[in-house]
Amino acid sequence: MAELHDLTALEQAQGIRSGELSPVEITEHFLARIERLDDTLGAFLTRTPDLARKQASDAESEATAARREGRELPPLHGVPVPVKDLNQVAGVRCTMGSRALAEHVPTVDDHVVGKLRAGGTILLGKTNTPEFGLPCYTENGLAPPARTPWDLARSAGGSSGGAAAAVAAGLAPVAHASDGGGSIRIPASVCGLFGIKPSRGRISSGPLLHDVSGLATSGPLARTVADAATLLDVLAGPMPGDPFTAPSLPPGETFAAHALRDPGRLRIACLTEAPVPGIEVHPDCRTATTETAALLTGLGHEVEELSLPSDDSILLAFTRVWSVLAASRPVPPEGEELLMPLTRYLRERGAEVSGTDFTRSMYAFRMLAQSLADGLMPPGGYDVILSPTLAAPPAEVGALRDDADPQAEFAALGAFTPFTALYNATGQPAVNVPLQWNAAGLPIGVMLAGRYGDEATLIALSAQLEQARPWAGRTPSMW
């Protein structure tokens, strides 16, 4: 007999609309699972049971009124959606994964939180993240490490590791996440989830901590394509003050609707070599990509092997900008000594980057985006780029961390994730698709990237892959 966490987010929402399910019942179910499993999993930094119960009661009253009055409800009304602890919720502790901000309680919501409130979703808590979201693991000085439920000895990835662990273990149906160098796609890959890094400007990063570099964006993590697309609809939309704005869908269109549409015949480039010199791609990751290419061919798409020039220049530009962003995080003077070694290293390095070098790095991102738009993915060119999401299978907890040598650690992080940051630099949308598991039973994700502003094609193609080789029914033993 199915339990509530076996249902997709859309199934839960439909049950709430019909009156067959209650937001209070659903919320209590997930709160109980968090209480029972999270000390092992490390998914949450802060739990908000009192707020969740209040929001669930309000959502239930609103659903009852809507049924009586014949009104439509938002698509995820009454569904729990935790928020990553890099984003601010008024009145709820926001640590950004740092001991320096352990007691910080903001007084305003980030725009994404406002959209979640307007959508009638329920906040179970703030999910675990590494300090300021800087590394691709989720370990900090505040909470246990976030672990993939597929193997509790291994990391859930980062920096949205807590969000991914929560969804993959059935502690939440979907989750808000964010991605500045792969931080949605990396944990989606190691936790066996579908995750969307939207186009630059699709989702507002305001009002307080706008990412003026354009690298980072919020996005959804989910077990199914339709759930993720629906959460993207909830989160998307420009807000006053945004430095970037992605092209809007046509009036009346939704991303969720594209999860029900045939993508048509697409021309797809397949990359198996890392676009960074000296990076060896693990055979499991190559195999996952080539098997996905064969599946796409079988579905009628035109798939061609492609290699990008191996070049250090974008890696150098990314490192400079990433370091400046680290140096810009709001740390009180008395909190500097509490920072993780990697954070201190990046902040020191960022403080040394000149304004001219920062501008040159940003210009390198723009030229890369232009070259892909003009040379690789213009109208008539490739519609989608397929690649491994990561260069290796899920890493053990602590394996990527090197407090004694943060410079070496940063290099190791880049070697683990050589494919993901490319699309943060260009602003293109990219998704992790959880089609493959290796012989050890570990999820091995593949990545699809599309033209700027064209999440719709990625969603339709991913849904086609999901229908051809369903994955949501495959769950870890702790499920």
Please provide a written account of the structure.
The protein is of the alpha/beta class. It has 15 helices and eleven strands. It has helices spanning 9-18, 23-41, 49-69, 111-118, 161-168, 185-191, 225-235, 255-258, 283-298, 313-328, 341-351, 355-376, 406-416, 421-426, 455-468, and strands at residues 44-47, 83-84, 125-127, 174-179, 194-197, 217-222, 267-270, 302-305, 384-388, 430-437, 443-450. An eight-stranded mixed sheet has the order 4-6-5-10-11-9-7-8, with helices on both faces. It has a three-stranded mixed sheet with strand order 1-3-2. Strand 2 (83-84), helix 4 and strand 3 form a beta-alpha-beta unit. It is globular. The model has no long low-confidence stretch (mean pLDDT 97). Residues 65-74 have a biased composition (Basic and acidic residues). Residues 52-80 are annotated as: Disordered. Belongs to the amidase family.
